[in-house]
Design a protein that fits this description.
single chain; about 40% helix; five-stranded parallel sheet; alpha/beta; two-stranded antiparallel sheet; 7 helices; 7 strands; Oxidized Rhodanese, domain 1; 2 domains
């Protein structure tokens, strides 16, 4: 251990996974003054955090009070089997004939009316609105809820989500 007349001290090697404890032993709380100072130094970052928080809260409150619920494909099959739900498919006639959920009724989006004969009988039954990707069916669900339907649902992700869940589609007319 002698090199050029001096002794060198070596620290013993630590074994892999040898943890001698946390580097910080006590938890320090951040004061309000420190948070305000940070916000002042990082104005854009702070504004982005506030904006995202407000948007998230607004979106979640809107979701809670909209009056209709989003269903996943598995939940839809349970609703159909258990409660005999009416499934309204808003796809075009061509898309509907290429593949639709068994038992669904085809109504073109341009002809969708909550007061139609098909829907008038189902005012108290569960009604599920479906489209190809889930976008236009959410708007239709909102219209049904405004018209006084009590149990309104929409398939989140539409028929595409149904297919991704490996659930069967029926081809042809209903």
């Amino acid at each position: 251990m002698w090199k050029h007349g001096r002794q060198r001290a070596f620290a013993p090697r630590q074994a892999a996974g040898d943890n001698r404890g946390p580097l910080i032993t006590r938890r320090e709380l951040v004061s309000v003054e420190e948070l305000l100072a940070f916000a002042g130094r990082h104005l854009y970052l702070s504004m982005a955090l506030v904006g995202l928080t407000v948007a998230l809260v607004f979106t979640e409150i809107g979701r809670l009070f909209r009056g209709y619920t989003a269903l996943r494909p598995g939940e839809l099959t349970g609703l159909i089997n258990r409660d005999n739900a009416l499934v309204v498919d808003l796809s075009t006639t061509g898309e509907f004939e290429k593949g639709h959920i068994a038992g669904s009724r085809s109504v073109a989006l341009s002809q969708f009316d909550p007061e139609s004969k098909l829907l008038a009988k189902a005012r108290e039954l569960p009604v599920v609105v479906v489209c190809r990707n889930g976008q236009s069916s959410a708007d239709a669900a909102k219209r049904l809820k405004k018209a006084g339907f009590t149990q309104v649902h929409w398939l989140d992700g539409g028929v595409q989500a149904w297919q991704q869940a490996d659930l069967p589609l029926v081809k042809g007319r209903a």
